[in-house]
Design brief:
alpha+beta; SMI1/KNR4-like; 6-stranded antiparallel β-sheet; 6 strands; Knr4/Smi1-like domain-containing protein; Knr4/Smi1-like_sf
Length: 158
C-alpha cells in the first residue's frame, strides 16, 4: 500500500468487504491497462463513497459506462465542438470516468500514454467545464479530502 493510500484510509476508513474486481477482465473489456494506484484504491474501497460526495465506480462498469457516455456526447459534440476539448474513451486518448460526484460531475482520466501518468480531469457536464489535475486518482482524492486540492465543482474539504 502506498503512503498516500494509507493516509487516505486514515481519513476515510474503507469498508470491511469492498467489491473485488477481476483486473484482467476489466482491462480486457476496456482495452487499456489501468493505473496501479487506482487498483489499490478500489481493492481497499470498492465502489464506496468518499467524503460523502464522491463515489468510486464499480470497475466492472467502467467499459459500459464509457460507451454510454460516448453515445450520449457524440451528438452534442457535433453541435458544439468548442465545448469538447477531449475525446471520450474508447476513442484514442479519451476521457474515462472512474468516479462521480453527487452533483453528477465526473472524475476522469485522460487516457493518453502511460497509465501511471494519466492526469485526473474533473468534468462538469452541464454546464460544460473541465479542470485538469496533474495527480493520480489516489492523489486527487487525498488532496481534495485534506483541502490541498480545491475546485469550483466540488465542495471544500479538510
Amino acid at each position: 500500500m502506498t503512503q498516500q493510500l494509507a493516509e487516505l484510509c486514515g481519513l476515510v476508513p474503507p469498508p470491511a468487504e469492498p467489491v473485488r474486481a477481476d483486473w484482467d477482465e476489466v482491462e480486457h473489456d476496456l482495452g487499456l491497462r489501468l493505473p496501479t494506484d487506482y487498483k489499490g484504491l478500489v481493492d481497499r474501497y470498492g465502489d464506496s463513497e468518499l467524503g460523502e460526495f464522491i463515489r468510486l465506480l464499480d470497475p466492472r462498469t467502467l467499459a459500459p459506462t464509457a460507451r454510454e457516455i460516448l453515445d450520449d456526447e457524440i451528438p452534442l459534440r457535433a453541435q458544439w465542438p468548442h465545448q469538447y476539448p477531449y475525446p471520450f474513451h474508447p476513442e484514442p486518448g479519451g476521457l474515462l470516468g472512474w468516479a462521480t460526484s453527487r452533483n453528477g460531475d465526473w472524475l476522469c482520466w485522460l487516457t493518453d500514454g502511460d497509465p501511471h501518468a494519466w492526469p485526473v480531469i474533473l468534468w462538469q457536464r452541464r454546464p460544460m467545464w473541465y479542470h485538469r489535475h496533474e495527480v493520480r486518482a489516489t492523489g486527487f482524492l487525498h488532496g481534495w479530502l485534506t483541502g490541498r486540492i480545491t475546485t469550483l465543482v466540488l465542495p471544500a474539504q479538510g
